[in-house]
Amino acid sequence: MGGTAMMTTAMDEVAAEAARATEAGPRAVTAPGPEAGARSGVPIPAPGIPPAATADPAAPAPHDPCAHGFLPERPPVRSMIGTWTRLDAMARAAAVAPDREAAIALVERARRDDELAALRQRVSRLSLRNAEAAAMRIAVVAVSCGWCGLDPQAPAARQVADEAFLDLWAAIAHRIDHDQFVALPTLALHNWAPERKPRRHIPIDQLARTEALVPIVRWAPEGQPLSRLDRLMLAATRLEAHGIWLFRLAETLAGRSPDDCSTPTALRRLVRVQHALRAQLHAEAAELAAAPATPQQRAVLGALAEHGALEPPVLQAADAVLGIGGRRVGEGRRQLLRRHLPAQHRAWLSAMDRHCAPVRTLAHRGGPDAAVYREAQESLIALRRTYTALVQAAARPATDPFPAAA
Prior knowledge:
- The protein has 20 helices and 2 strands.
- By secondary structure, the protein is an all-alpha fold.
- Among the domains are: 4-23 and 244-395, no CATH class; 82-190, no CATH class.
- Strands 1-2 form a two-stranded antiparallel ribbon.
- The longest helix is centred in the last third of the chain and has 29 residues, at 262-290.
- Mean pLDDT is 84; it is low at 1-9, 21-61, 326-330 and 400-406.
- Residues 18-40 are annotated as: Disordered.
């Protein structure tokens, strides 16, 4: 729940203003939308989809960040079926293991029972959606075992991790075309479900904003309160859902001239969205700080942070527009963070880097428009600091990891 009700009115107001921003003023460069019935043209092609591919009626619909940000197009798969229930059970057990050694023992037992080999043989039969669900569970096992930064195809990894598990990991990575998926985008955005099924179909970002969410694979034992790690991952999912208007404003600004009269208006609304996202994180903080935590969960968080694997996609989208990531921590660091996103999302961010370059020239100017741009940068810096504080709160030692059962 984490402050969801508290934020609804404020976010609705921001959404209304951002909607007006996306419609205000002509675009500097436009192209037809990638699908029939799509919104008005955007200055970049569909992310990760070459123009020729979009002309093929048999091709799958390209991902549109304006529709739901970097959330999956449909709610994550809650229950695996068939042989894949073994992976689900292993992930659930690994997530609540008391330490890395216990999690590794679960993997070794699965290898001895030939479960990993059986799963490896069935990877090619998975639909993409079910492959993403399997990837989330692989990610849970990998971080629980302390294998967060491994490349499953590297020879050195076989000296550290179970070989059969690495083979399964590599096969899943190939199936979803994403090598570095053991990170927050997979662990959070593919590990949630509404606590109760909504009465009618609603867009996925609205579902994640308005419904109480629960993790599919819990880091806390069943029957116990959600842990800080659980709440951090759900907070990241809600942040992504509330940040949908940031993606839409990003595409509004793409290709705009800094002298366009609508540019400062869009930047002001971007500031309001970022302030609302910061308020959303503040609303999450109290429940997260009060939640229990174990040393193993803190070790998982530490490993993810060490490998730059805790960056929310919505903050990377804001970086692509405003240039904070490249200016403050270097282009290499920016690409290091992006490697944890799917290829089509990385392509969209790279396109935003290019198409928002004219707007970023405001950083070197004076006057009221440049002041608005700098305010947008400062609000993003404040948002990132608030998120960092939330991560630090989640990693703080707890005196009583889990209360005794009544």
